[in-house]
Structures are given as C-alpha cells and as structure tokens.
Fold this protein.
Amino acid sequence: MCKRLGAVLLLIGCLLLGLTGCGTDKNEPTSAKTVAVVPAQAETYDTGIDYIGIVQPKEVHNYAFLTGGKIAELYVAKGDQVQPGDKLAKLDTTQLELSAAITSNSASMAQNNIATLTEAVQVAEESLHVAEQNLARYQALYADGAISQSDLENMQLQYDSQQASFTQLQNDLATAEMSAANSGLSQQQMQQNLADSTLRADSPGIVMELPFKENEIAGAGYPVVITKSEELVVKVGVSTDDYGQINKDCPVAVNGSIEGHIDTIAAYPDEVSRVYTVEIICTAPELSAGDTVDVRIFTGQERGYFVPLSSVFQSDGIDYVFVVSKTGGENNAMRVNKRQVTLDEMNGSNVLVQGLSANDLVVTDGVKLLNENDIVVIEAKQ
C-alpha cells in the first residue's frame, strides 16, 4: 500500500515538474508588432479664415410706377429673363388718355388764341401809328391857330384810346402765350405720364417676384416687378478681429473648390450684428440664390506638420500620436511612445498638428493595436 502511494506521488511530482518546465521564460523577449510610419516633415500650407456665406443676386431691381393706378397688364411671369427695354407691366391709362386729350385740346386752343391776338396787336399797332400821326398833325395845326383846342383834345382822346387798346392787346397776348406755355407743359407731362404708365427693364435680369396681379391697384412707388441679376454674390459677415486680415486681393474658395474674388468690403460694421459685410463674386452653375455655402478667405502661408488623420487617437480626451524611437535592440526593433499633439485644420485626409519635430516617425497603420512602450518593427516599403 505504501509503495503504491509513493509511486503515485512520484508520478504527480513528475507531471508538475513537466508542467513547470513548459512555462514561459521571463527573460524571453516579447514579439514585436509591425507598423507603418511616416516621417514628420514641415510643409507650406495656406492660412485663412472660414465663414458661412449666403448666396444672393448681385443686384435686385424693384420696378415701380411713379403714379399709382390699376394694373392693366403684366407682360412677364416669374422666372422670365428680361433685357433692357423689355415691357414689364402697364397701368390702366383710360383716365390719363382722356386728360391728355383735354390738355391737348387746351393747348391747341391756346395756340389759336395767340394767333388771333397776334394779328389784333398788329392791327392795333398800325392804328396807333396812324393816331400818332394825326395827333402830331393836329398839334401843328393848333399851333398855327388853324383848329380849336377842342379839336385837338378830341384827337388826343382818340390817340389815348388807341394806345390803351394796343397796350391791352399786348397784355392779352402775353397772358395767352403764358397760358399756351403752361398748356404745353401740361401736355408734355401728360405724355410723360402715359410713357411712365408702362414699366420697362433697364438692365438684364430674371423676374424674381410679382407682388401685384392684373387689375389690382398699385400705389406710387410700390414694387410691381422685382428682378435679380444673373450674376450671384456670396455675402459673409466678417468679425472685427478678422477685418484687418482681409483685402480685395485675398483669394477665396467657396465650398472648397469654387474660386471667387472679393468684390466689396463694407467700410463700417452693421449696426445690429457689428460684423462687416463682404461680397464675393463667383461663377458656379450649381449655386442658387438662397444657398448656404462654406467660404474660406485665404490670408497667407505658413509651415507646419501634417499627418494622416488615422494616426491620431484620443486618450482621456487628449489627442496623441505614436512616435517610434530606437531601443538599441536587434532586428531593427524599436519602441513606440505616445506624443501629445494639438489638432488644427484639415487638408484632405491629413490634419495639421502641433507638437511634432522634424523627422519624427509617426505611426500611421496599426495604431489601435499599440500600447505605450510596445516594441515594433517598421513595415518595409514596397
């Protein structure tokens, strides 16, 4: 019995010894992980300021009648393209045409009256000349004693009467000429009113709004047809801090790829928002009025380090990259360490970071499998 127990214990001891021998040697090196890296190299990149812009027509025209009235006809519809001189709308001119006819008749009568008075003045002037000659002759006869004083006084009365008649006719002619001039002005005004009763486009554009319908009453000065220019602008509001960085020569990118240029920069900030309105002209068929777009105004160039976004990871809310450094081991073995970085702007799939030095080897592939101080082998380039 004792011999059997001893044999069993010996067997168990041998098994335990064998299992212990199968354990890992603490001095055996950990297997290295293969990673891809990229050396940090400074690149020149464009700097700028980013804003959200609104696409608007460069120009908006509000066409209104100078005098109010009933809209007789609209010649355009929303979306129509118009050219300078095209008819847009017309007022009901029934009353205007009647007034114009009356004014024209008055002007014609005034001209006829002038002709009659002119002829009468000429006749009166001739009669006055004859009376003047008769008075001179009577005065000579009276001096010679050939006629009485009564005869001379009668001749004087005839002359004075002719003089008064002539003067009155001259005054009447002057009044008639003034009346005719006023009638002429009234007639011109009526003709102008008739011309103004038809709205015409004064520049190329697209009809955007028609606030009134036919047969509705439009007040003087109220827009009846609103058009927009085909050329679009992007408007952004620039802050006071950024205002000093921009000028009309700054390049502009809209939605990343559409080129634009600054057309105007407001000299004063908006009274409410306190931002400066900047208008940017760009030509892009895909843009429409009312669109919201991303705008970058380029202000200069700087140098910095870009790394693939995939190489950046977070730990406790802080951004890091793994940087490879030599350990002195064999087989090109190296060690990785976390390097805290600050992210800046994106450039495609790369991100600008602060915190790297020239030629730092930044891990780009295998980041999620790494831990601090892991031994790695750099993947050979193919």
Q: What stands out?
A: Confidence is low (pLDDT under 50) at residues 1-29. The longest strand covers residues 292-308.
